[in-house]
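Check this:
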Amino acid sequence: MASFMRFVDRTSRCFTLYRNNQLEDEGVNGYQHLYIIKVCKHPGILQDELVREIYVNKSSVARQLSLLEQNGFIRREACKEDRRQLLVYPTEKAMELFPKVLDVRERWNRRLLEDFTEEEQAMLFGMMERVMEKAAYLLKHPEEGVKSE
């Protein structure tokens, strides 16, 4: 049987390359689109919250946010309640790019699924949501990982 994750990984890499191509003129790479979306939707989000929501390690989040900050897309401030925490805000530049980032994602989804009926899409989304939830659960409960045969 083919590996399920092979399909997921290849699809994800293709989407990253597509985003790179579509957003390179804007100064954003294919990995940064999700940061733009999260920060624009939730101005003042804690940097540590991005770690939890995006499922990326702290150093990767810090590195991507540093690049976005250097390129004028976000700004970070120390949290008043806990100076160790950083709040992340979009700049005007990020807010102007935000609709384009959403459009790139929407066009990819539309093109990727154009050969599926609405019923097939609903079924696929339902199954993928279950897979995503199971993956998040297993990440939090590694002791319940894949059992050997």
